[in-house]
Every structure is written in C-alpha cells, then in structure tokens.
Amino acid sequence: MILRETVSLLKENYKAMLEDLTIVEVVSGIFLTAVRLSDNSCGVASTMTDNFRCSKDKRDFGDFTPLKIRGQRVLDLFETNRESGAISTLRIAVLNAISSRLISDQTYRILSNTDPIDLIRPEPGKTITLVGAFQSYIGRIAESGAKLRVLEMDEKALSGGQEKFYVPAEEFKKIIPESDIVIITGMTLVNDTIDDLLAYVSRGSKVIVTGPSGSIIPDLLFKYNVSIIGATRITNPALLFQIAGEWGAGYHLFRYCAEKICILRHEQQ
After folding, report:
1. 182-199, pLDDT tens digit by residue?
2. Beta pairing partners, 184
3. Which of 65, 84, 103, 154 has the smallest C-beta neighbourhood within 10 Å, fewest atoms?
4. Is the pLDDT of residue 269 over 80?
5. Please, are residues 72 and 64 in contact by the beta-carbon 8 Å criterion?
C-alpha cells in the first residue's frame, strides 16, 4: 500500500521527470545495493536475496535479471509484475535515488547529522519496540530503564545478554499495540511488511522508520502516522558503490560516504 501509493504520487506529480529516467549503474553486495540513475541521483537499499537453488525450467533471464538492468526505464521497474527479492531491493534503491533529489528540493523539515534515537526520550515507564535488532539502539534504550522488546526473525541477532529482549517477529500483532514508541527498520519497505506493522500501532504512539532503505519521500509514511524518518543522505557516490560491492553494511556508509538525516512530520518537535 505505502509503496504502491508512493509510486502513484510520483507518477502524478513528477511524470515529466520520470518519463525518460533510466538505471545506469547497479552494484549489489551481501548487505547493500546501490543504484545510479540517468539524472545522476544515487540511492541505496538493504539487499534482500533470493533462493537461487531452482530447477532448470525456472531459471530467469528476463527483465531486471543480470545484464538486463542497466538502461531499463524506471517506470518499467515500477510497473513490472515480475517479483523477486532482487527486484524488490532494486525498486527501493531506485525510489530512494529519486527521493534524494525531491527531498532536497522540497520544504520537508530536515535535521542534518541527526539520528532518530536522539529525538526520543527513552525512560522508565515507557515501552519501546524495535522491529529489527538495531545494535546501536538496544544498549542505549536498555540503559534508560524503558521496557524494551526487539521483534526479530532471527533470535541469533541478539547476543551478549540481549536475548532477554527478543520477541519472535510473528508476535507483532500483540507487541506493537502495547508500545509507546515503535522503531521500524527500513528493510520492511524492501520485504513489504511495513503496512501490516503500521496497521497495529496504537493511537498516540510515536513511530520511527530508519535505516538505509527508509529514504523514500515521506508523504505516505507520514500519512500512515510515521513521526520521524531516519534517512540516508549520500555525500560521496563513488565510495557508495565501492562499499556496496565490498560487503559494506549501513555503518560503513556513515563512516565513509553518507550522513544520517531525520525528516520530521511537521507537528513533531
């Protein structure tokens, strides 16, 4: 819903800009996928891999497979009915590239060099749920005395005493409504689970979407009650592609070629 409506918004408001826009470069690593578009905008997303162990008759050589990505029109990527982890990743990276230009041109409320965790007040009596094991957040929230739960698919993502915060991801329908603050990984845009998560947020809860994949234009996220978006601003595109191709993760981006920005819904302080 959010992705579909975001694409519709882009088509409606920026049709001329999108008409001839193409993909000119793609580098996909284990953790990150980077793209460059024909207007020289760049975007990044967390890589969602496919199961490549398929029978011979299911091998795919169609559009948006190796050697059939560069030169493709962005609109064709948005309109294709083909689905795979690679296409989902590519779609978000392209949306983030387009959004990087629009966010700079628009009157969104942006805080530079800011992490969303700096804008909330974890304290005793508050219940905070992380959707995804944000290592840099877990310790800080735990030390605050707030009640912390971490919704994760992989229990092994938490270690060193963090296991007590683990809650199986499938329990989100119970956990999210009980939360004062919900912090959601941008990866949920790639794997298309964000709509279900947001549907269970209680009125009055503060919702944050953050991570390299969460840099799409914020209009639809704000519409569905996201308060703060922790986005990524690329500062050195050349290093972006090198990092993505050399198994780099999000924290490498912020060390070498990107800065954290926060995009705030206007009523947020």
Report:
1. 999 999 999 999 999 999
2. 131, 209
3. 154
4. no
5. yes
* Contact in structure between 26 and 33 (CB atoms under 8 Å): yes
- Domains held by the chain: number: 2
Out of 92, 108, 124, pick the residue that ends a domain. Answer: 108
27-31 long-range contacts, CB within 8 A, separation 24+: 27/241, 27/244, 27/245, 28/86, 28/89, 28/244, 29/243, 29/244, 29/245, 29/246, 29/247, 29/248, 30/247, 31/244, 31/247, 31/248, 31/249, 31/250
CB-based contact 169:153 (threshold 8 Å): yes
Please say whether the dihedral angle defined by the alpha carbons of residues 73, 234, 187 and 175, taken in this order, is positive or negative: negative
- How far is the C-alpha of 138 from the C-alpha of 140, rounded, in Å? 6
* Of residues 220, 172, 166, the one with CA closest to residue 200: 172
In the block, residue with structure tokens 């986005």: 231
pLDDT tens across 171-183, in order?
A: 999 999 999 999 9
